[in-house]
Each structure stands twice: as C-alpha cells, then as structure tokens.
Specification:
By secondary structure, the chain is α/β, with parallel strands linked by helices. It has one domain: 3 Solenoid (UDP N-Acetylglucosamine Acyltransferase, domain 1), CATH 2.160.10.10. It contains 6 helices and 15 strands. The strands form 3 sheets. Strands 3-6-9-12-14-15 form a 6-stranded mixed sheet. It has a 5-stranded parallel sheet with strand order 1-4-7-10-13. A 4-stranded parallel sheet has the order 2-5-8-11, with no helix packed on it. Helix 4 runs antiparallel to helix 5. It is elongated and about 90 Å long. The termini are far apart.
Length: about 230
C-alpha cells in the first residue's frame, strides 16, 4: 500500500512541477491562449490539455538541442511530439513568443520556417517547402499574422505583419503587411488599409473571385431586364 501511495505522491509532485514550469517559462503562450481562445477556462485545463502548448514545449527543447548541433535527439523529440499532439514542428524552425496553435491537428512547420511574435495557426496549417531545393525553402511569417484552417503557405516567401490568411488558401507569393489572402491560389485583398484584427472570423473575409462573379451576375441581371 505504501508503494502505491509513494507512486501516487510522486506522480502528483511531477505534475505540479510541470504545471509551475509551463506557467513560468511559457507564460506568453499561456496568455495567448486565454486571449484568443474563448474556450479556455482555467490554467490547469490549459497546461494539461492544450496540445498546441505541449507541442511548443517539445519544440523549445528540441530547438535548443538542434542549435547545439546535437544529432538525432532533436528529431526524435519532434517526432515524439508529433505522435502525442498531431503537430509537427521541425527543430530547425525559428518561432517567436506568443504563438497560439488552436486545436493543432495536422499543423506542419518546416525546417527553415520563421514565425514571428503573436502568430495564430489553426488546425491543418502547413508552412512547407516546394521542390527539393536546399537552403531556405520555407516561409517567413510576420508578427500578429493569423493563418486560417487548412491554409498552405509554401516556399521561401514572406507574409507581412498583421495579415490574415483565409481558411484553405494556398499562398505561393509574398504578401504585404496588413493584407487578407483567400482562394487557391491565394489572392490578396486589402480592407481599407486598416490593421486586421487578429481574431478575425475565418468566413468574414473578402474573396476577389466571388466579388467578380457577383459583379458579373449583377450585370447579367441588368442586361436581362433591358432585353
């Protein structure tokens, strides 16, 4: 009985150490979750149950080892994190503070990706490369960027700060700051040159293709009325 009790007490002690460690070292990321996720209710739930936060903890460890040029172990840690969280972050990627990965399943961040501060990634996002080229082959994401569900940002391109990438967009070219990108391939739309809200709803973006189709439809209606 005493052995079981010691095991339970040891587990509780490790759990408390984990909670304190995450709350101190990853305070910016925890704060970002409460700021951007209305489902976040308390610190205990966030620290223990948010896979995006867990993936970042694994990443920070693997990235430190990768920067120290330690072989094998960084990739082993990142693949373990992928197995546990469904999120794959290459240890070579450079990620700023305040990243929020919402839900997270299927998120992939490539080796030479650079992610700025206070970025939000939704599930299914890929920051990937194109072709088999060596060197810098993944995107740079500016500060305060929101990347919607299922979006793909591919190649050595730059997404300007305060931009919004719509759900399922495929972005292959540079995006200037304060822009909205939607569609396949991605098309840039600016909303009055205003800084975009980082909490912008996925569906409330301007799609230039849909706008063009609506304009054509409106013109056809006017022509039909005249004829």
């Amino acid at each position: 009985m005493s052995v079981i009790l010691n095991i339970i007490l040891g587990f509780i002690s490790l759990l408390l150490v984990w909670i304190v460690f995450v709350l101190i070292v990853f305070k910016r990321e925890v704060d970002a979750i409460f700021e951007r996720d209305p489902a976040a209710r308390n610190y205990l739930e966030v620290v223990l149950l948010y896979s995006g936060l867990h993936a970042l903890v694994f990443y920070r460890v693997s990235h430190s080892l990768y920067a120290a040029r330690i072989p094998f172990l960084p990739r082993l840690i990142s693949q373990t994190a992928r197995f546990l969280t469904g999120i794959e972050i290459h240890p070579g990627a450079r990620i700023g503070r305040g990243l929020f990965i919402d839900h997270g399943m299927g998120v992939v961040i490539g080796e030479t990706s650079v992610v700025g501060k206070n970025v939000t990634l939704y599930q299914g996002v890929t920051l990937g490369g194109t072709g088999k080229e060596k060197g810098k082959r993944h995107p740079d994401i500016g500060d305060n960027v929101v990347v919607g569900t299922g979006a793909k940002i591919l190649g050595n391109i730059t997404i300007g700060e305060n931009s919004y990438i719509g759900a399922n967009a495929v972005v292959l070219r540079d995006v200037p700051p304060h822009s909205t990108v939607v569609g396949v391939p991605g098309h840039i739309t600016k909303q009055d040159g205003r800084k975009l809200d980082r909490l912008l709803d996925h569906i409330h973006v301007l799609d230039p293709l849909m706008q063009s189709l609506e304009d054509i439809e409106e013109r056809l209606k006017k022509l039909e009325k005249k004829s």
